Amino acid sequence: MVIRPEKVAMIASLKETMKNAKGAVLTDYRGIKVAQDTKLRRKMREAGVQYSVIKNNMASIAAKEAGIEGLDDYLKGPLAMVSSDKDPVAAAKLISEFIKENRIMEIKGGLVEGKVIDAEGVKALANLPSREVLLARLLGSMQSPITGFVTVLQGNIRNLVYALDAVRQQKESA
């Protein structure tokens, strides 16, 4: 079987997208209207996320060439891929928000760092707090023991000052 050069180029591009994607979501795009699609694509561009309609056979070939196992189960019916090469959560968050607002499309599965996840995994990923929030929580939990230690030390010094003040008052009254 001879594959046309333009299809070879599309497969190579798709393979690179899959390899470089920190996070990707596969969706069934049935039911989306042109205006909704335009709005979704605008949001994706603003967030630095790629959105493309792909053919199942080409996605299957690209996944095999990229060394991604288990993706064939999700390559049925109309298929669109939303991917980000910077943030593993961005694609999942954007598509999940869009689905909640419009009640169309369906998440089939996804990729995180080259590993295949199911629709529930994508939804769990979308519900994660942002990177900044997670870093702030980590910093807070790291500061907590230090803050407690300083408070304990201050308490001992404070008690010593109270004791010395009580001795001073006792000597003044005597």
What is the CATH architecture descriptor of the largest domain?
2-Layer Sandwich
User: Any idea what the CATH superfamily of the largest domain is called?
Assistant: Ribosomal protein L10, N-terminal RNA-binding domain
Q: What is the class of the largest domain in the CATH system? A: Alpha Beta
The beta-strand count equals 5
Shape, principal axes of CA atoms? elongated
Main β sheet profile: 5 strands, antiparallel
CATH topology of the largest domain: Alpha-Beta Plaits
Widest sheet, order of strands? 2-3-1-4-5
Radius of gyration: 28 Å
What is the total domain count?
Answer: 2
SSE pattern: HEHEHEHEEHH
Topology of this structure?
Layout (H helix, E strand, L loop, with lengths): L4 H16 L2 E6 L5 H14 L2 E5 L1 H11 L12 E6 L5 H13 L3 E7 L2 E4 H8 L4 H43 L1
Antiparallel strand pairs: 1-3, 1-4, 2-3, 4-5
Helix pairs in contact: 1-3, 2-4, 4-5
